[in-house]
Amino acid sequence: MVPDHQRLSPEERSNLVAYLDGELTEVDTRAIATKLTQSMTARRELETLQKTWEMLDLLSRPQASGNFTERTLAITDRSAGQGDRIVTAASGLARRVGMVLALAVASVLFFVLGYATIFIAWPNPTARLARDLSIAENFEEYRDVGSIEFLELLDRDPELNQDAN
Known about the structure:
Layout: H1 10-14, H2 16-21, H3 26-38, H4 40-58, H5 68-121, H6 125-131, H7 133-137, H8 139-145, H9 148-156
Helix pairs in contact: 3-4
């Protein structure tokens, strides 16, 4: 048999008001009813709660003042206004962040375009040297020739150009 001095568990104690109002499930109602029938301590807790509710019903209820509704609505309007200010501040911040990101993207784009333009348009001295390597290798012989007219005469000479005919 269950001891007569068994106390209600914290969960059962929190369900006592719902038990008195008939709002518990059938299983929870049966569990609390069983404990109440078997334990004098649990019954005293229930009686104390019932007396507390009865005493609260005897207290006078405060009446709201005539301007209570107006003050409540004014506070609500101010709270809504603060929400609008938060939205305005957030949208301003988002706009500034968007501008900073747009400037950053534009800066990167201009840098890339500038680099590509210089890379393509600026002459590469190494490429020119590679293209004119045969001239650089035979520079001494070209200098000994003296002028282009001499090379043109050699080009017209049939004995030297037998392969071309």
